[in-house]
Every structure is written in structure tokens, then in C-alpha cells.
Amino acid sequence: xxxxxxxxxxxxxxxxxxxxxxxxxxxxxxxxxxxxxxxxxxxxxxxxxxxxxxxxxxxxxxxxxxxxxxxxxxxxxxxxxxxxxxxxxxxxxxxxxxxxxxxxxxxxxxxxxxxxxxxxxxxxxxxxxxxxxxxxxxxxxxxxxxxxxxxxxxxxxxxxxx
Length: 162
Hints:
Strand content: over 45%
Shape: globular
Strand order of the largest sheet: 1-2-3-4-8-7-6-5
Structural class: alpha+beta
Oligomer: single chain
Radius of gyration: 18 Å
Number of helices: 4
Distance between the termini: 60 Å
Mean pLDDT: 84
Helix content: 10-25%
Largest sheet: 8 strands, antiparallel
């Protein structure tokens, strides 16, 4: 009987799914202007609340998720920034565990590629692609950085409601 259980288990590989939200989901979150709604949804992806930072004009809520990819520990970080008057919000996701550029660029075919004016885009170690449509602006960046396990890349996507 033990052999039967083990053979059934070995035939059922664990599915590999993308646990990062789609561009559509990020855009929907940016439309919420509600940390409470965002909080419920981001937790389903394994993120936990870390810190709330009150700044002039906005409040930022940071969530983190610890992941292990190929035996290397990473921390994924997502920040939900909402204007004090609930007029705008921005979602920023930072990770070194997954190439966000390759993940998100194919999802942006309906967006217009524009010149990046962000401070990150001006850094010589960073390459950015910036997109807009009628309702959102999206920046995706790939930054060459020193990681704990040596040189690597840190990826960043920002989605803001226009």
C-alpha cells in the first residue's frame, strides 16, 4: 500500500504557476484607492503586511513575501501608495526572484511605449521601458545590482492611475 501511495505521489508533479499579479490585476488595484481591498487580495499571493509609512500627500503600505528559487532566498516587495485625498494610487513591485521585464512586457502590447523620465531610467545600471494607455502609466525596470549571492538583477514595475 505504501508503494501505491508513493507511486501516485510521484506521478502528480506540483504545478508551476506565476504567483505575480497580471498587468490587469495591478491596474485594477491601482484603481481601488482602497488599502483594505488591496490588502485582502495581495495576501492571497502570500504577501504579508510589513510597514505603513505616512508621507506628505500620501500613505505607503509595504508588503513582503519570502521566496526560495533554486535554493536562493529572495524577498519580494510590493508597495501600495495612496494619495491622502484618495485621488490616486500607485502599485510598485520589486523582486530579484523573477524577470519582471520578460513577464510583463508581453502583457503591454495595447499600451503605447513612451520615453522614460523616471530617476531610475537615468541610472547607467538600469534599463527601463515606460508605457501608457488612457488610464494608466507603467514603468518596468531591470537594474544590475549586487545581491547577497553575487551580481544579479533587481526588477521593478510601477503601475499608476492617470
